[in-house]
Amino acid sequence: MPTALGHIRVLDLSRVLAGPWCAQNLADLGADVIKIERPLVGDDTRAWGPPYARDADGNNTSEAAYYLSANRGKRSVTVDIASAGGQALLRELAGQCDVVLENFKVGHLKRYGLDYETLRALKPDLVYCSVTGFGQDGPYAHRPGYDFLIQGMGGLMSITGERDDLPGGGPQKAGVAITDLMTGMYATVAVLAALTHRDRTGEGQHIDMALLDVQVAMLANMGSNYLNSGMPPKRMGNAHANIVPYQTFACADGHIIVATGNDSQYQKFVEVGARPDLAADPRFATNPLRVRHRDILVPLLAGMVATRTRAEWIDQLEAAGVPCGPINDIGDVFENPQVKARGVAIEMDHPSAGKVTLVRSPMKLSATPTAAHRAPPLLGQHTDEVLREVLGRSDAEIAQLRAGGVL
Prior knowledge:
Elements: E1 9-12, H1 18-28, E2 32-37, E3 52-54, E4 60-64, H2 65-68, E5 74-78, H3 84-94, E6 99-102, H4 116-122, E7 127-132, H5 147-153, H6 178-201, E8 205-210, H7 211-217, H8 220-229, E9 246-250, E10 255-259, H9 263-272, H10 277-280, H11 287-292, H12 294-305, H13 310-320, E11 324-326, H14 330-335, H15 337-341, E12 345-350, E13 354-359, H16 383-391, H17 395-403
Parallel strand pairs: 1-2, 1-6, 2-5, 6-7, 7-8
Antiparallel strand pairs: 3-4, 9-10, 10-11, 12-13
Protein name: CoA transferase
GO molecular function, one term: CoA-transferase activity
Keywords: Transferase
């Protein structure tokens, strides 16, 4: 099958999560992604375990599950970027690529002759994407940026977690590195836009992606709420700032989520709960009124929900057309019939583990489907292959580079 980006080659100088997530998206779409790693050490996330992938005998391999999650579809090449020979090799590789991804500190790659201006002089149509914590300019540009810090600085932790006046209240980070992941997604969009521009004009460009910018952007309605009211939103646990009821409730045997997006759904919810009076009450007739009187309404709804089991509520609310659902653990997720029907978990051949199970790309394209064509690579697995194929190096030349400590 044809792929959307089968004509694109990417030089990936990034590591950890935000940059590799972008590169994995591009690989899923068919791009040839060449992942550059430090000899002997590689991407930091290779050591971020346990857990690790296991071989057929159940023994741990050296491949951390964290690393496996973000590096599908790539080819790994080891290069000592600190050596003059390694820098020259990377400039040569960049000249054969359409895109360069990097997440070094601002200005760090200039000393190696691998910055945008240097590479643009060699290849004017190059798309060069820099991912940093704070961007290429501004008073914080020199600072390193990590997802956890940015979730705090960027306001996400001020609106995540239980209310301060309730047990367990206080700031809370998201369960995954959401700022890194969203930066990777925005970077993917930006790279695709820049490639489209290049295809129309022949002109490359520099993309400046900052985790803090992304975190502020993804505040979405909460950021807009502040900008249009002057009041900083606060933590509300599993409640919604603008919709009531839109939260979790405790059933007789567990918890459910009820998400009533309009007045009709709310009315159906309380009718299923045998409390039509809560729809007739003028204090709760519309969503703005329910938001205003949430402290009165929510305890009444909680008492209603507590009288039945989770299964009973889900069956009855689904039949009535009220959005609802369980709170699954991750084991439950992969056993969910819908997740199974969509083929979200995929098994791939792996050179050391034999088989690894990963999550496929969620992008489904009818004409150019994504393809998990290559498992996350072993460190340096494709060094010789790429140097022969892309740069035309002979085996003797590769051996000489290796002997000189370049690879």
